[in-house]
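Incident log, structure service

09:12 report received: a user says their structure output differs between two submissions of the same chain.
09:20 pulled the input from the user's history:
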Amino acid sequence: MFKQMLFAAITTVPALAHAGAQLTEIETRWLKAAAPVLAYAQRLKLPIDIIVQPRARPSDVPLAVGFMDGRCKLVLSMRGNPDAEKLLDSVPQEQRGVLMEAMAAHEVGHCWRYAQGAWHALPTGFTETAAAPASGPAGESAALRDSRREEGFADMVALAWTQRFHADSYGPVYAWLAAVRAEQPAAGGAHDTRAWASLAADGGVFKQAATPFDAAGVLWRAGLLSDD
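09:34 re-ran on a clean worker, output below:
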C-alpha cells in the first residue's frame, strides 16, 4: 500500500482498450475477478482510475492503490512480475476468483477511506488516549501505526464484502487472509492486522449495514482497542 507514486509511462485501462492494445492474460483475469467490486464502487461514485504499469518493479505487489490529485489509482503491477500470483500458490484454482475479488475489495476499502476524508483518522468518539493500545510497540512511528490501522480497515472490508456477496466462500477466504497476516515478518508491522482478523473468524459478526464499508467499520472500531 502506498500514498503517492509517479505515474509516468503508465496507461489507463480504458485508453488501452480504446486503442486496441492488449491486456495480458493475467491482467484480464484479475480485472474480471475485480469487476463486481469496481462496478459497486462506480455506483457509489468513488473516484477510482485503473492503471497498468508497463513493467513491475521488484518491490511491487500485483494490486495496490495510490492517491493522486484527489483520486484513487488502482494499479496493476503484473508485467515482468514473477511473483504476481505467489499469494495464490496454495489456493485451489476454483477459489482464486473470489480471493482476487476480496483483494480488490481491500484496495477499494482504502479508496473509500480516502474519499471520505478519513485517511489516517480515528473514528468519531476515539482519541489516541481512548485507543491507547492501538499505539502499538513503544517507539513505533505514528506513520506505521496509522498504516496498520488502514490495513486493518481494508481487511475488514474484504471480509465484509465476502460475507455479503459470497457467504459460502467466507470460510476459505478468512482462513487465507488470517494465514497471510499470521506470516507477517514483523509483529506490529504495517500489515500485522491480526487484532482485527481475530474478531472476524465467523462471518456472522458482520451485521447488515448500508454498505460493506459500514459493516467493516463496526469491527474496525473494536479492533482499534485491541491492536497492541
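09:41 both user submissions now match this output. Likely a transient worker issue. Closing.
09:42 reviewer note: The chain has two domains: 11-88, 120-224. The two ends are 21 Å apart (CA to CA).
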